[in-house]
């Protein structure tokens, strides 16, 4: 494993590739605009892969323009880290410029296209092809400390914000529409801690502001939003708040991260609080990432729900990982009201810097009860093809 460039991570913005000259950018800009228009009608599901942050023990902004992970990749990730550390196939040096995301010295782009095939012999309506993601990213770095960011996906629910690294301890403030920082931002949006806690697209983004600082090996993020996730306009006078903190340290040779999150909102169903710890451990080829949350909804029968998700990966060779997942949801931890479990096993691969393939077998197991009416128990193999830039 390489030693990540920590000094790079400490910079107030993500660096760009060093190119002596750029080809005529007017034609490339026209193609960019056409691409944005083509995607304008298509929901953003841009998430991150927490195991990389866990393994390299770095902040998400080392590899992403989005400081909390996911979305457009930095030049460092696209041109160095991914092709040199994460792919099955070696990338020819003479093609290195094709991975350069820069359109002009201040303007760069990116994209994610994920297509999923679901096979469920026992549940016909869950058997089909699904365009999981089709997102275009644009980053305008107007100043070394300020940037404008747009992630346009398959619907009008998008991320669009201004970002300024103006706080001490490499901290930032961002204002606009974004996904609030909470727990682990799994790239699989069906992980229960994303799906059951309000981060399922298209309702995962909201309008507001977020501030963060990164003292030494720690990170603290606080956000205040409209509390109207996925909606273009605020539908009430109640706001929502989120807070997340973590600390990273090496313990007996293992990369360890420990943290916690808290969320507060007031939807039409009443006050909603969610809170819980998250952690990760990376040692050798193995990485575990886990999160557990309590969801409190006093106005909804006073029930406290338990939601937890875990992922274990083992690198079999460069670019290929064995992957195990476990999710659990109990709608009422004080009563025997039923529960839902999900188990997953499969392989994840990154063949080229622009192409990944994932194959998973998923089992949903149902402990029947009044709290899980409408849930189903079934087996579902999945194959996902991921084009990225």
Verbal overview:
This protein is mostly beta strands and 389 residues long. It has a single domain, classed as Porin (Beta Barrel). The protein is built from 5 helices and 16 strands. It has a 16-stranded antiparallel beta barrel with strand order 1-2-3-4-5-6-7-8-9-10-11-12-13-14-15-16. The relative contact order is 0.13. The N terminus is likely disordered.
List keywords for this structure.
389 residues; Porin; 11% helix; 46% strand; globular
CATH class: Mainly Beta
Low-pLDDT segments:
1-47
DSSP summary: helix tally: 5
Integer count of domains: 1
Enter the CATH topology name. Porin
In round numbers, the mean pLDDT is 83
How does the SSE layout of this entry go?
Blueprint (H helix, E strand, L loop, with lengths): L5 H4 L15 H15 L10 H7 L18 H12 L20 E12 L9 E16 L2 E7 L6 E9 L3 E8 L13 H4 L10 E8 L4 E8 L14 E12 L2 E12 L6 E12 L2 E12 L5 E15 L2 E11 L8 E14 L2 E13 L10 E11 L1
Antiparallel strand pairs: 1-2, 1-16, 2-3, 3-4, 4-5, 5-6, 6-7, 7-8, 8-9, 9-10, 10-11, 11-12, 12-13, 13-14, 14-15, 15-16
């Amino acid at each position: 494993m390489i030693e990540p460039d920590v000094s790079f991570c400490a910079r107030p913005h993500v660096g760009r590739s060093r190119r002596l000259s750029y080809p005529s950018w007017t034609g490339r800009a026209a193609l960019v605009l056409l691409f944005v228009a083509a995607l304008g009608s298509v929901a953003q599901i841009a998430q991150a892969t927490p195991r990389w942050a866990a393994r390299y023990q770095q902040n998400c902004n080392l590899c992403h323009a989005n400081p909390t992970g996911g979305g457009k990749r930095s030049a460092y990730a696209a041109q160095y880290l991914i092709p040199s550390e994460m792919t099955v196939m070696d990338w020819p040096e003479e093609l290195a410029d094709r991975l350069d995301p820069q359109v002009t010295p201040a303007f760069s782009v990116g994209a994610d296209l994920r297509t999923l095939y679901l096979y469920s012999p026992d549940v016909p309506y869950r058997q089909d092809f699904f365009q999981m993601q089709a997102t275009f990213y644009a980053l305008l770095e107007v100043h070394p400390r300020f940037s404008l960011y747009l992630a346009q996906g398959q619907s009008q629910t998008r991320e669009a914000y201004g970002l300024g690294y103006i706080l001490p301890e490499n901290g930032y403030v961002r204002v606009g529409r974004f996904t609030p920082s909470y727990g682990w931002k799994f790239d699989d949006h069906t992980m229960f801690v994303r799906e059951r806690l309000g981060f399922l697209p298209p309702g995962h983004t909201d309008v507001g502001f977020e501030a963060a600082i990164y003292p030494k090996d720690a990170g603290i993020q606080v956000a205040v939003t409209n509390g109207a996730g996925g909606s273009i306009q605020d539908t009430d006078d109640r706001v929502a708040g989120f807070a997340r903190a973590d600390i990273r340290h090496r313990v007996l040779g293992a990369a360890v991260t420990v943290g916690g999150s808290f969320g507060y909102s007031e939807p039409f169903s009443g006050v909603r609080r969610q809170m819980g710890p998250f952690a990760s451990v990376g040692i050798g080829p193995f990485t575990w990432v886990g999160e557990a949350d309590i969801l409190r909804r006093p106005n909804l029968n006073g029930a406290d729900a338990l939601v937890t998700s875990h992922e274990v990966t083992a690198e079999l060779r460069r670019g290929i990982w064995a992957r195990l997942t476990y999710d659990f949801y109990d709608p009422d931890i004080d009563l025997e009201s039923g529960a839902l479990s999900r188990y997953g096993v499969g392989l994840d691969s990154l063949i080229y810097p622009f192409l990944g393939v994932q194959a998973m077998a998923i089992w949903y197991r149902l402990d029947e009860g009044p709290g899980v009416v409408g849930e189903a128990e079934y087996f579902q193999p999945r194959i996902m093809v991921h084009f990225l830039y």
